[in-house]
């Protein structure tokens, strides 16, 4: 795993994720949910759960559900499948529902999720150009050839000082 098929890495700390997810919540607040307000948050597991917690806390939304979509095995993508749905009695067609994920890459995951809740508002913290059309609100765009590393996939580790890097 130390050699990746992507040219660039964008490493996100917990602190950065917290700030960016808060910024997402503030944007969503400014946009408003329309008449009934945001009724519920649906997190796309697993990456959407941390941002969804932060967004639902900021916007004081207490109804939080999950949808599980399996598509990647490490960095290889297969056809996405819903393996767990949210409570459809609560989310209905998606009106007043905020779907939250950590990022959109190709947009395939969101395509499947949107089909299940066509009227929901889709929000991600990060977005790549190919998947951007699937998202209503996001915070930061990175290039398509960037791999985003999230804090739950990383660990603090020793690095050699710059001076001795080639020794
Ligand atoms: O726009 P796409 O190309 O569909 O990719 C984006 C999705 O891929 C990752 O999830 P993944 O399926 O790896 O599962 P995880 O959240 O459990 O890590 C990421 O968290 C998004 O949900
Ligand atoms: O850039 C990424 N980072 C982490 N998970 C992902 N799943 C699709 N693209 C990415
Ligand atoms: Mg995910």
Order of adjacent strands in the largest pleated sheet: 4-3-2-5-6-7
Major beta-sheet overview: 6 strands, mixed
The total count of helices amounts to 4
Query: Could you say which small molecules are bound to this protein?
Result: 1-O-pyrophosphono-5-O-phosphono-alpha-D-ribofuranose, hypoxanthine, magnesium ion
The general outline is globular
Oligomer: single chain
Catalytic activity: GMP + diphosphate = guanine + 5-phospho-alpha-D-ribose 1-diphosphate; IMP + diphosphate = hypoxanthine + 5-phospho-alpha-D-ribose 1-diphosphate; XMP + diphosphate = xanthine + 5-phospho-alpha-D-ribose 1-diphosphate
InterPro entries: PRTase-like, PRTase_dom, Xanthine_Guanine_PRibTrfase
Enzyme class: transferase
Subunit structure: Homotetramer.
Describe the structure concisely for a colleague.
The chain has 167 residues and is an alpha/beta fold. It contains 4 helices and 8 strands. 31% of the residues are buried.
Describe the structure.
By secondary structure, the chain is of the alpha/beta class. It has a domain at 36-143: Rossmann fold. It contains four helices and eight strands; from the N terminus they run E-H-E-H-E-E-H-E-H-E-E-E. The strands form two sheets. It has a six-stranded mixed beta sheet, with helices on both faces. The chain has a two-stranded parallel sheet with strand order 1-8. A hairpin with a 2-residue loop joins strand 3 (64-73) and strand 4 (76-84). Helix 1 (14-31) packs across helix 2. The longest helix has 18 residues, at 14-31. The structure holds 1-O-pyrophosphono-5-O-phosphono-alpha-D-ribofuranose, hypoxanthine (HPA) and magnesium ion. Hypoxanthine binds at residues 72, 103, 105, 147-148. The site of 1-O-pyrophosphono-5-O-phosphono-alpha-D-ribofuranose has 16 residues, from strand 2, strand 3, strand 5 and helix 4.
């Amino acid at each position: 795993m130390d050699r990746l098929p992507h040219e660039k890495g964008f490493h996100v700390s917990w602190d950065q994720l917290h700030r960016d997810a808060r910024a997402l919540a503030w944007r969503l607040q400014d946009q408003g949910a329309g008449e009934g307000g945001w009724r519920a948050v649906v997190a796309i597991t697993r990456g959407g759960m941390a941002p969804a917690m932060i967004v639902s806390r900021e916007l004081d939304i207490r109804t939080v559900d999950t949808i599980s979509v399996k598509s990647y095995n490490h960095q290889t993508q297969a056809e996405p499948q819903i393996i767990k749905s949210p409570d459809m009695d609560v989310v209905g067609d998606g009106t007043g529902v905020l779907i939250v994920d950590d990022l959109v890459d190709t947009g395939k995951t969101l395509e499947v999720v949107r089909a299940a809740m066509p009227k929901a508002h889709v929000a991600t913290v990060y977005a790549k150009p190919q998947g951007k059309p699937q998202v209503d609100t996001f915070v930061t765009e990175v290039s398509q050839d960037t791999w985003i590393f999230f804090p739950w996939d990383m660990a603090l580790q020793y690095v050699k000082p710059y001076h001795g890097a080639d020794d």
